[in-house]
């Protein structure tokens, strides 16, 4: 295994581990727990789950793998804070979106070669990438993994 | 920047970003906030800070860079849950340990070559490493980064 492949594997493994833990946690939540705050006055579970899936649904765009499938999530779960949007996506729908978004990512990631991961992401110009080649697609995935772990830590306070 | 350096840079950058954010957050906490719970009945800030620094102080051992400097942290902040140990490290001392532990890691990391990062970590046998070369020192660092982000997400609920 060459070093590019090994590194891609490391970053994908960390992502996969965090995602599996978070998915399993979410699958075991009751509808009542979905509506609870992770701490008094802080985000509700439904908002954090919507936030994570909205950010993950946008990943194909920055990775050059296609458009968001659920653009309606962004204004509710990213642009607006919790409790400021009246009509929020229902829990059952959000759970289905969680599955669909991550199935898509898993399938797309499986198609990418190690070399693909080392290409610049879509928010970088060629000139910027030349200056900082560590800001590639793999670095985007690793940053999203830290973001996932951050909010998963908050969700876990519920239990 | 050669390819190998780019690889290690991706993982080191994510670690560094999370560490800087968490350090800056901790530096701005009052002593009163240090003694608060991140959510009702959950870990106190002082415990989570002690937990993170205890785990980071153990990193040189698994990376083959030397012994823990503060072995007394492990029984209090890793082996025991919060509020079960009577005598806990004072806040001012913990803040100093935070600086010392991370200064050491920064210096040690700067000395490691890209090839060093791709070597097996100390908890792996040679045979296991041959089967799974992705379980190298870099993978340890990436896992610790996710662990840091997870607990930093919890600490952030305080503000």
Keywords:
159 residues, 9 helices, homodimer, mainly alpha
Description of the molecule:
The structure is a homodimer of 159-residue chains. With 159 residues, chain A is mostly helical. Chain A has nine helices and no strands. Chain A has helices at 3-27, 31-34, 45-57, 59-62, 73-79, 91-111, 114-117, 126-131, 137-155. The longest helix of chain A has 25 residues, at 3-27. The mean pLDDT of chain A is 96. Chains A and B meet through helix 1 and helix 9 of A and helix 1 and helix 9 of B.
- Order of secondary-structure elements of chain A: HHHHHHHHH
Count of DSSP H/I helices of chain A: 9
Contiguous uncertain segments of 5+ residues of chain A: none
Number of strands of chain A: 0
Briefly summarize what is shown.
Two copies of one chain form a homodimer. With 159 residues, chain A is mostly helical. In chain A, 65% of the residues lie in helices and 0% in strands.
